């Protein structure tokens, strides 16, 4: 991973841009992001002008993030089981359709707070379908050594656009009106739609049948739950999003009430936020060389807390712009760190799902935070809400004691996919099952403790890739004999489990083999369960026992 660790000014930082497919989609995404930021300014300012409710203004941010919470896990399963390019294209289509409809309603004068939230929600639904597939495709398009740089470029690209997008949106709204802003946004959404249609890239195919959506979602949730690195990243990202979103969700109110500005001032302050984010993103490699990821996360929380507190206390646009630059630096540092952690800890077979779960929870936190701080602002005061956000961010920094971010692993998490199915005497079909696997070990007494330690690791490994009901038994009449047992729902699931094992998992098998004392290697027995209930209907058994 040396290439990813180079400083921000080194060629490695921009190495992914040498890949023409990544470069084309990345550039098209920046155009779309520019339009989205303009649209966000227009929607936020429109809501602030037609609604007197602070909560409704804050809910604009919630409507933009809630779809990711609702749809991301489903979208991740789609990305891992179907064409990621196709899922990206479908998401972009939905964004274009919803944006066209919003522009049409504004042109016709049919504007209401709930209508605004509804179309904002639909546009975000398209993004919720697109984003997990795009993030998962990064590892398909670029070399693994360039993944950290690519993930950072995604954040840097968006925040570079953030430096000009909101200001441009404010200028367009102030000079040409809301309809012009919504029309330009729709045109920018067409750019990545055409790029995804034109670009194609190779994806490693699996020799096994596609998983059902239910099984795919279950496998993704199980893998995420069993990865301490991913869980720590998601936990910190979720609570960071909940605490820090007050800066962006309440900024229109701060401009209107504390600073006495208009849409141009709002866009300028958003540009200040983006400027800080860009500089932090470009320096990300240097930061990561000199500081641990956990320390970077704490510094990011402190920076955002200082930003929120400054917005609560200042009446100067210049001071607010400097505070927002600091907040933007903390924002991109935090999200780059947790995003890279999730990417590098996820094998290709499940990366779409882990990223989608990550997005679901952090966007759920952001949506909840928008509602919480909007409610506090409406029921108490804007100052209270921003000060409360600052205090919460300091608590997020302290949460590292419970959920410390792990340093990224050097080991390769992708499966070897080198597995020859064992010969069986029955004519099994893909859905035949349930399959029971029993492995017999012979372990002398002096090696029992070492064996149990290894089997705890093995249980974690096997369960993470699909084993169910894993148990370890010891023969009471022949204590030297130990039997490992687990199940898979079908024969295909058994094959899929073995295709998911990594080189590190195979090394664990070698370590177990070293303390096995039999003349032959551990003996594996494959069985298939056969229900004996008289109430079982014949047609129910056919898909599971086609060899009968």
Automatic annotation (TrEMBL):
CDD domains according to UniProt: MFS_MefA_like
Membrane topology recorded in Swiss-Prot or TrEMBL: Multi-pass membrane protein
This protein's UniProt keywords: Cell membrane, Membrane, Transmembrane, Transmembrane helix, Transport
Transmembrane segments: 25-50, 56-77, 89-111, 167-191, 233-254, 266-287, 299-322, 328-345, 357-376, 382-403
Pfam families: MFS_3 (PF05977)
GO cellular component, one term: plasma membrane
InterPro entries in alphabetical order: MFS_trans_sf, TM_effector
Cellular localisation: Cell membrane
Protein name, UniProt field: MFS transporter
Annotated source species: Mesorhizobium loti R88b
